[in-house]
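Figure 6 in text form: structure in, sequence out.
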């Protein structure tokens, strides 16, 4: 029953049939990459680069807010920083990073030789590079970068300079890349699973990505429509969102958030999948309630389409609409709570050890639960009226997106890094990164709840004196958190990529299950060219 792999042609190696190719070398390997592992690596490096760019913008924001008054930037540049920070982090960092995880792990987890459309996979990655350049280049255009907030609300977006047009074009290209990636994931999972790997035996990471891919295909065209209407309002005389011509700026919000709320789940469902892989491995138990997890993820995806206007309680919505979106928002918290219950139940009475992936997974569960609870509070319409567009909202969504998406990515990176690079990371450095990140994250974002409840609005470059102490604490925490991520890259990722450290065994974690642990470390350039024969659990290869 155990993982044998005595026959290298069965899983790795290059001596097995006509369609195996030698590993390409040099720049051609990366420019013309069609191997899912190389493309996954490109996505991950690209997204980390964008994380650093977006992080620098965030630190400029926090440097300005370190004390009252205007220190470094004027209010116009401040709004450009907040806008570009949001766009770069969402479309340049979080989404491409999860696509990188999908490219690396989905074929390995389902026993496929590669992604279904290898050349489209290459194209979807390389679209991101010019799009990212166009997005960041807005700072250097006449009038500077867009300053309408990352949501690009009309009428502000109709009044911006030419950088708004380049940003719209960049977001179109990134959206096209996302749709191609989603198509690739769906076709790969539905058509290329190894014999015996039924849908209900797939790893949870594959399930969460399958559902995420359907969400992407459903909502990215909606976003494309919203920004295209903005473009035609700006240049072609239409009046979709211009009240002077009979348009309605609130309509933009409806269209944007019909995309934007499922987008929130696009950025968190793959994180749920990663945590569902890591927790059972280090608890040495099967995932509790696998089927209920699958149904919960599907329920979240479906319900995400009926909650969009909870972002809009202050736009003059009738009471009936407020009640509908309020209760729908509370309803969507139920399947999310199911997942947290299942992870805790998986750990219950397990033989737990606390290597870095597990630390980040437990840290994720803790801080994501806080983010979930803080989201239930603005779901109540009369309370939202008080805290709308304050720092309470900033605190809430950073608990979901930083402590949620980013911490889950760190858990996944530490978990799979030995399989990716062939070398074990330094456990001590990993634990330093975890505690440094966890402490500085909470120093940064927890006080924002109090600032928001006290009435400090977001996107303002200046503030009254009574908010000074908390803002100083937040800014100090933000710089600490930023440097923690530089530490992660320089002292954890780079040594592993350069082949420094202890060579990783094929199965570095004794509780880990799944086909990715059936191939050598590092994973060979070609894997599973012949479909593997699986045991009855679909988690091991039978030689």
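Output sequence:
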């Amino acid at each position: 029953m155990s993982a044998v792999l005595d026959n290298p042609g069965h899983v790795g190696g290059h001596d097995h049939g006509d369609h195996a190719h030698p590993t390409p070398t040099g720049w051609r390997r990366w420019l013309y990459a069609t191997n899912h592992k190389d493309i996954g690596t490109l996505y991950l490096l690209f997204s980390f680069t964008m994380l650093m760019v977006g992080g620098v913008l965030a630190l400029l924001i926090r440097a300005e807010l370190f004390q009252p008054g205007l220190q470094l930037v004027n209010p116009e540049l401040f709004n450009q920083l907040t806008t570009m920070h949001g766009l770069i982090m969402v479309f340049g960092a979080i989404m491409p990073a999860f696509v990188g995880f999908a490219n690396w792990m989905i074929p390995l987890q389902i026993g496929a030789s590669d992604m279904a459309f290898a050349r489209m996979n290459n194209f979807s990655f390389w679209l991101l590079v010019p799009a990212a350049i166009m997005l960041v280049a807005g700072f250097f255009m006449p009038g500077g970068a867009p300053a309408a907030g990352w949501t690009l609300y009309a009428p502000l977006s109709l009044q911006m300079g030419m950088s708004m047009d380049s940003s719209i074009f960049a977001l179109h290209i990134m959206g096209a890349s996302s749709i191609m990636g989603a198509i690739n994931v769906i076709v790969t999972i539905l058509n290329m699973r190894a014999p015996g790997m039924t849908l209900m035996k797939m790893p949870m990471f594959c399930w969460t990505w399958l559902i995420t891919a359907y969400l992407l295909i459903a909502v990215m065209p909606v976003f494309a429509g919203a920004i295209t209407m903005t473009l035609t309002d700006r240049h072609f005389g239409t009046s979709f969102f211009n009240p002077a011509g009979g348009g309605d700026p609130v309509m933009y919000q409806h269209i944007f958030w019909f995309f934007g709320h499922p987008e929130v789940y696009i950025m968190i469902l793959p994180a749920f999948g990663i945590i569902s892989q890591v927790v059972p491995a280090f608890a040495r138990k099967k995932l509790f309630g696998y089927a209920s997890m699958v149904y919960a993820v599907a329920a979240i995806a479906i319900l995400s389409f009926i909650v969009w206007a909870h972002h809009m309680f202050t736009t003059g919505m009738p009471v009936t609409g407020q009640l509908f979106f309020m209760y729908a928002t509370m309803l969507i918290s139920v399947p999310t709570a199911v997942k947290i219950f299942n992870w805790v139940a998986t750990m219950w009475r397990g033989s737990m050890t606390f290597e870095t992936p597990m630390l980040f997974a437990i840290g994720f569960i803790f801080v994501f639960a806080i983010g979930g609870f803080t989201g239930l509070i603005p779901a109540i319409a009369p309370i939202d009226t008080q805290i709308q567009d304050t720092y309470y909202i900033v605190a809430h969504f950073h608990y979901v997106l930083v402590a949620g998406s980013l911490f889950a990515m760190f858990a996944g990176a530490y978990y799979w890094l030995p399989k990716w690079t062939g070398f074990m990371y330094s456990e001590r450095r990993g634990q330093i990164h975890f505690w440094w990140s966890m402490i500085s994250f909470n120093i940064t974002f927890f006080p924002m709840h109090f600032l928001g409840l006290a009435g400090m609005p977001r996107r303002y470059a200046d503030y009254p004196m009574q908010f000074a102490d908390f803002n100083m604490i937040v800014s100090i925490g933000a710089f600490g958190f930023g440097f923690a991520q530089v530490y992660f890259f320089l002292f954890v990722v780079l040594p592993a990529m350069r082949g420094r450290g202890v060579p990783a065994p094929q199965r570095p974690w004794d509780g880990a299950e799944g086909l990715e642990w059936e191939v050598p470390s590092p994973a060979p350039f070609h894997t599973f060219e012949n479909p593997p024969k699986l045991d009855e659990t679909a988690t091991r290869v039978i030689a």
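Caption detail: Residues 37 and 104 are 5 Å apart (CA to CA).
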